């Protein structure tokens, strides 16, 4: 039954496109964090193609075999996934926006029919109406609603989904010129996570890392080029004069990891590739990892 629930909860996983693919007009105006995966670019990468086929599509095929249902969904039909929310570090009000060509509604209905035919309440998926909008509930915690032909919204908070749906239909303001998205361009990326208020961690940060509170935003971008997986971590300083201090902290942290984790070959391969640079009030850390080793690590994990 876990295989069946995998498909019913397929949107819950957080995977998503590169910065140029983000459509800010679909994001709520109060968002303070955004995670975005370009499904098309992800599948074109070697590691993405392997994850989709070996980790994702294999489970979809298993669900279809177990239920004997002609389900339309495929991870190959996801164009992009964008997650966003109003509070950094909190996801209860977050929204997952999935752009897909799959007939998701038809698949949900087939799964509900499968449950009713079995008579045992599995998979735990049902249909309700909230404020005149049809909603599919998964495990009584996750809600999914359609917003146009190719857009689905998923989340725990129905009010957040309704607000996001209004944005998609042009009935509410979308995100405009958000400062926390304004970072130097990164090539060959298929994923990014952008955060506003990275200093909001406050007392959760160790004493030696308090310097990071002087950053008013951060972004992680992941991509692939040649035989490497690329990581770019960027921070924007609140004041240009603190950027040197932040650079020195990060360089010191890299040196410490090299010494303290000398026996960790994977971690050393990552930190040895580190390049720390600054540009005006931006700090950028470039990292890379051998693609074949990364793919083997993914294959090892179930």
Protein model, in words:
The longest helix is centred in the N-terminal third of the chain and has 22 residues, at 46-67. Residues 1-20 have low confidence and may be disordered. The chain folds into two domains: 2-168, no CATH class; 179-300. It is globular. The protein starts with a helix and ends with a helix. The chain has eight helices and twelve strands. α1 crosses α3 (46-67) and α3 packs parallel to α8 (291-300). The chain has a twelve-stranded antiparallel sheet. With 302 residues, it is α+β, with helices and mostly antiparallel strands.
Q: What strand order characterises the main sheet?
A: 4-5-6-7-3-2-1-8-9-10-12-11
The residue-averaged pLDDT reads 87
The dominant shape is globular
Count of distinct structural domains = 2
Distance between the termini: 17 Å
The major beta sheet can be summarized as: 12 strands, antiparallel
Number of helices: 8
Q: Determine the strand fraction and express it as a percent band.
A: 25-35%
Helix content: 25-40%
Which series of helices and strands comes N to C? HEHHEEHEEEEHEEEHHEEH
Based on helices, strands and strand pairing, what is the structural class?
alpha+beta
Radius of gyration: 21 Å
**Count of individual beta strands:** 12
Q: Show unreliable segments.
A: 1-20
């Amino acid at each position: 039954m876990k295989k069946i629930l995998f498909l019913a909860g397929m949107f819950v996983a957080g995977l998503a496109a590169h910065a140029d693919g983000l459509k800010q007009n679909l994001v709520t105006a109060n968002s303070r964090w955004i995670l975005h995966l370009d499904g098309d670019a992800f599948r074109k990468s070697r590691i993405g193609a392997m994850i989709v086929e070996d980790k994702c599509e294999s489970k979809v095929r298993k669900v279809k075999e177990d239920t004997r249902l002609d389900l339309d969904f495929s991870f190959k039909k996801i164009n992009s996934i964008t997650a966003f929310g109003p509070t950094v570090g909190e996801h209860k009000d977050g929204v997952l926006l999935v752009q897909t060509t799959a007939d998701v509604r038809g698949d949900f209905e087939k799964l509900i029919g499968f449950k009713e035919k079995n008579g045992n309440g599995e998979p735990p998926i049902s249909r309700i109406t909230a404020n005149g909008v049809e909603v599919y509930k998964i495990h009584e915690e996750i809600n999914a609603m359609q917003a146009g032909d190719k857009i689905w919204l998923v989340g725990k908070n129905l009010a957040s989904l309704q607000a996001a749906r209004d944005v998609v239909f042009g009935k509410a303001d979308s995100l405009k010129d958000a400062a926390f998205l304004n970072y130097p361009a990164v090539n060959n990326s298929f994923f990014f996570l952008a955060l506003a208020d990275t200093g909001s961690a406050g007392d959760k940060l160790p004493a030696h890392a308090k310097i990071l509170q002087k950053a008013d935003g951060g972004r992680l971008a992941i991509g692939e080029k040649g035989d490497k997986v690329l990581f770019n971590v960027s921070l924007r300083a609140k004041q240009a004069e603190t950027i040197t201090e932040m650079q020195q902290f990060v360089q010191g942290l890299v040196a410490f990891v090299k010494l303290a984790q000398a026996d960790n070959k994977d971690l050393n391969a990552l930190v040895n590739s580190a390049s720390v640079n600054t540009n005006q009030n931006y700090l950028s850390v470039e990292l890379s990892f051998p693609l074949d080793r990364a793919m083997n690590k993914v294959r090892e994990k179930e």
